[in-house]
Specification:
Layout: E1 8-13, E2 16-21, H1 24-34, H2 39-47, H3 53-66, H4 73-77, H5 85-100, H6 102-125, H7 136-143
Antiparallel strand pairs: 1-2
Length: 150
């Protein structure tokens, strides 16, 4: 069972439950992969709410390795998650929220989670060809642990 106090989450990939954790080594690996100078830069990178499929695969693979699973980034790219692309983004949001914790983790997780929600909601609620929704900013405000501090 995952312990969120240690930054662990559980995720179902290919029908199997895995424990993921972004250990210090996993974070260092991501810093190198993304060319970031420090963990704050990583948090800011994902706090923007923009994440590519390659970014998601790298984060999930690093989390799997931090959770004790020997798996390559390319192996993660071949896996399936419940909910498709939005499911992968949800895993990343949970993992980042558990890793960075506190207000920073809540905001990063909310932004990435809002993107996943937009993917799911947009696919269901919008007619084909219409523009994307603008729910991300509202999600960050809703998750703001210090309302009125802006």
């Amino acid at each position: 069972m995952a312990n969120r106090h240690r930054g662990e989450i559980e995720a179902c990939l290919n029908g199997k439950t895995y424990k993921l954790c972004l250990t210090l080594g996993a974070l260092a690996e991501l810093e190198g992969a993304f060319g970031d100078d420090d963990m704050l830069a990583l948090a800011e990178r994902f706090g923007s709410g923009r994440i590519s499929a390659n970014d998601a695969a790298r984060v999930i693979a690093a989390g799997l390795r931090g959770g004790g699973h020997k798996i390559a980034d390319d192996d993660v790219k071949d896996m399936r998650a419940e909910g498709g692309a939005a499911g992968f983004i949800g895993i990343v949001a949970q993992l980042l929220g558990a890793t960075f914790g506190g207000p920073a983790g809540a905001v990063v997780g909310a932004v990435v989670g809002a993107v996943a929600g937009e993917l799911i909601g947009d696919a269901r609620d919008r007619p084909a060809g219409s523009g994307a929704g603008h729910k991300r900013e509202d999600a960050v405000r809703a998750a703001d642990p210090f309302p009125g501090a802006r």
